[in-house]
Write a structure and sequence with these properties.
Blueprint: E1 11-12, E2 24-38, E3 41-50, E4 53-55, E5 58-60, H1 67-79, E6 86-88, E7 94-102, E8 105-118, E9 132-137, H2 138-145, H3 150-163, H4 169-184, E10 204-208
Parallel strand pairs: 2-8
Antiparallel strand pairs: 1-7, 2-3, 2-5, 3-4, 3-9, 6-8, 7-8, 9-10
Length: 209
């Protein structure tokens, strides 16, 4: 059962027991899942706050802002990455939900997340909000996030899946037909199928400041 101690470290709503809830308010924030391409594969940006808490750049709305405007502004404020240094990936929007406490006030956060690519490696964090950052390969990022933040891992998986190259249906169908023909031309012979999986070499970049 979750502890009822005061804490600014968020918890996914899935992990919150009804009996621990106190008077709360709801708020919506917006941010980005940022990645860059490397020879090892896509690396995702995570910001480090405290304890075991790593997450994406995000922040609160200002009056009159759209969610994408908030996400862009907060990304630049928290990392120094400007809109001109991004390629926003179309047709991606994901959500994570958190619960945390400030004093005797409970907070429900709904986070709207967009996806973008950058070529920028070095970023500038705000020490008041974060104490480090890292660029992580997908599986390394999952390990860093840990088991506690289920929604964060879910969003990361959605982003990673969205970036995977999609095979065209016609090409897949043609390949299947060719495979069937090759089997019919060699009766009596057994076919051994070998599947090779390539996993990016483990690599991790961190910059704790």
């Amino acid at each position: 059962m979750p502890q009822t101690r005061d804490s600014r470290e968020p918890r996914n709503l899935k992990n919150i027991d009804e009996s621990t809830r106190i008077p709360t308010k709801k708020q919506v924030v917006a941010g980005f899942v940022v990645y860059r391409k490397t020879s090892d594969g896509n690396k995702f940006l995570l910001l480090y706050r405290r304890g075991n808490y790593w997450n994406f750049p995000k922040g609160h709305f200002e009056p009159g802002e759209r969610s994408i405007d908030t996400a862009l502004r907060e990304l630049e404020e928290e990392t120094g990455i400007k809109k001109s240094e991004l390629r926003i990936v179309p047709n991606f929007r994901a959500y994570e939900r958190f619960y945390f406490k400030i004093g005797n006030q409970g907070i429900y956060d709904t986070v709207i997340l967009f996806l973008a690519e950058t070529h920028k490696v070095e970023i500038t964090i705000r020490p008041r909000e974060h104490s480090g950052y890292g660029w992580f390969l997908y599986h390394d990022a999952l390990n860093v996030i840990g088991k506690k933040y289920v929604d964060t891992k879910k969003v990361l998986k959605q982003a990673n899946d969205h970036l995977r190259p999609r095979r065209r249906p016609q090409a897949a169908q043609a390949q299947g037909q060719g495979h069937a023909q090759s089997q019919s031309q060699t009766p009596g012979q057994s076919t051994v199928h070998r599947q090779e999986r390539q996993r990016p070499a483990p690599g991790r970049e961190r910059d704790h400041r």
